[in-house]
Design brief:
Layout: H1 5-21, H2 31-39, H3 49-59, E1 67-73, E2 76-83, E3 93-99, H4 106-113, H5 115-118, E4 123-127, E5 130-131, E6 144-145, H6 156-171, E7 174-184, H7 186-197, E8 204-208, E9 223-228, H8 236-249, E10 257-260, E11 263-266, E12 274-279, H9 289-298, H10 305-309
Parallel strand pairs: 3-4, 3-7, 7-8, 8-9, 9-12
Antiparallel strand pairs: 1-2, 2-4, 5-6, 10-11, 11-12
């Protein structure tokens, strides 16, 4: 198979311009600074063609460059990677948010989740956390993360989410019936928090390796929870409590049916089914999760209020 040389050159030039453009300051350094720190193997302070290729593979997974967008929220500059649909359509696009864990990044989330590859018709957003005290690790807050409860850090991440969603609705044709959230660990906890505090936004959610202090505030919604039986950080027993709480909120049946490997689906008398994806792994995010999450999201869209009233 022959590759168009002009296309390759264009891709390298695009990455070069993208890296140079990432000059907006953040508390963990600009994307350009992080790229140089990670991929400048010869220590000359710049990226050679081969180093740019490695950076492109890491920062721009899937071959399609995301839009690097910034917002000013309060006194903070916040960042996100936004993948626009690679499969064009005149229809409004679904939106999928993917949240990294504590100590992670939007680039990590893109590499781990890859939702944009699995759902090319969707707008996929990987928001970037900032240094935040962790509930289980990093009490001094030296690593990037998300607020763990309502009111934490002045609700700066909830406000950031609101700003991102408002921009998406302003700039793009968004299908408000199909907005979704997923995240791992601290990002999964933030997905639970969004469910509790922004319940009308989402059609379905899929937290992984997480729990929440706001389980009693949840309202019925299609949900999938991913948990490892040997999770050494967010203990499986804690996650079992979250699973039980969600099943109760959603009005789920006591027994489930197999939906996929390691996945049990519990029917709901409120039309808000729940899927428990229980694997034998640890806290590590399972590679099998993203395709199952996208399949689950595609099965659920919000019912318009006028239809509910009928």
């Amino acid at each position: 198979m022959h590759v168009n040389r002009l296309v390759l050159v264009s891709m390298f030039v695009s990455l070069s311009g993208w890296l140079v453009a990432q000059e907006a300051p953040s508390q963990s350094g600009t994307l350009r600074e992080r790229a140089i720190k990670q991929f400048d193997k010869d220590g000359d302070g710049k990226l050679s063609l081969s180093e740019r290729a490695a950076a492109r593979e890491a920062f721009l997974p899937g071959g399609d460059a995301p839009e690097h967008m910034t917002w000013t929220v309060g006194e903070l500059t916040r960042e996100a990677l936004v993948y626009l649909p690679s499969k064009k359509s005149d229809d409004a696009a679904p939106v999928v948010f993917g949240f990294h864990g504590h100590g992670g990044s939007s680039q990590n989330a893109a590499r781990s989740f890859g939702f944009e590859k699995l759902w090319p018709e969707a707008i996929v957003v990987y928001m970037q956390g900032i240094p935040t005290p962790g509930r289980l690790t990093d009490p001094e807050g030296k690593r990037n993360g998300w607020q763990s409860d309502a009111g934490d850090q002045g609700d700066r991440d909830l406000k950031f989410f609101d700003a991102v969603l408002a921009t998406l609705r302003e700039k793009y044709k968004v299908d408000d019936r199909r907005i979704y959230s997923s995240g791992h660990s601290n990002g999964g906890g933030f997905t639970y928090l969004l469910w509790a505090k922004r319940p009308d936004v989402f059609a379905a959610v899929a937290p992984s390796a997480a729990s929440s202090r706001r389980l009693l505030e949840l309202t019925p919604k299609p949900a999938m929870h991913i948990a490892g039986r040997n999770d050494e950080l967010v203990l499986f027993s804690w996650q079992e409590l979250a699973i039980a709480a969600v099943k109760k909120v959603n009005g789920c049946s006591a027994s489930g049916t197999e939906w996929a490997k390691d996945c049990m689906q519990y029917a709901s008398d409120k039309d808000t089914p729940f899927i428990a994806f229980i694997h034998d792994g640890t806290h590590k995010y399972p590679a099998e999760a993203p395709p199952l999450i996208v399949r689950f999201f595609k099965e659920h869209a919000k019912v318009p209020a006028e239809q509910k009233a009928e």
